[in-house]
Amino acid sequence: MLNEQKVIPAISNHQDLKKFLAMPLTYGILMNFQLAQLPELIGMMRAAKKKVLIHSELIRGLSSDEFGAIYLIQTLGVDGIISSKPKVIEVCKKRKIIGIFRFFLKDSISLSQSLEMAKKISPQYLEVLPACCLDIIEKIKKETSSEILMGGLISSKEQIKKCLNAGAIAVTSSNTSLWE
């Protein structure tokens, strides 16, 4: 579904957006922008034939609940949403757009809780942070049917290769030097 794109840019400023628009990548994540900026940014991405993913919890002025998700889908026509909120992922599934359930691994309790929630909502994709938790990919794959993206603290192409070799289908990164 993600066109086998191995690195998905996480874009948080206009300079990085311009770089992404000039690249042969399809999917990009908008984050750290203001809600009022989204129509113009999405228009720029559409004009460049890009697919728009929004990190709903990192858009200033957007309610990061299911009502914010409905706005992103119905009004702005996004292709997908990243969220740590199960209700947002459920809205994505109902509306037939990409829903990426994001969770942070701090300890074994957070892993157990996140896996239980992932089993309940059965998202198409999981984004697991931080990416240095490679050993856990196999366990997540055994317990869920979701495709796995890794993100957070990725600083080298070698780390990207390790994530992919461990079973992730892609990584998310705001580090522009890793987008190629």
List keywords for this structure.
7 helices; globular; 22% strand; alpha/beta; eight-stranded parallel barrel; 180 residues; TIM Barrel; 8 strands
Explain this structure to me?
With 180 residues, the protein is α/β, with parallel strands linked by helices. The chain has one domain: TIM Barrel. It is built from seven helices and eight strands. Strands 1-2-3-4-5-6-7-8 form an eight-stranded parallel β-barrel, surrounded by seven helices. Strand 1, helix 1 and strand 2 form a beta-alpha-beta unit. It is globular and about 40 Å long. The two termini are 19 Å apart.
Distance between the termini: 19 Å
DSSP helix fraction: 25-40%
Largest sheet: 8 strands, parallel, barrel
Shape: globular
Q: Structural class of the helix and strand makeup?
A: alpha/beta
Q: What's the quaternary structure here?
A: single chain
Low-confidence stretches: none
> How many domain modules?
1
Radius of gyration: 15 Å
CATH third-level topology:
TIM Barrel
- Number of DSSP helices? 7
Secondary structure: number of strands: 8
Order of helical and strand elements: EHEHEHEHEHEHEHE
Give the name of the CATH architecture.
Alpha-Beta Barrel
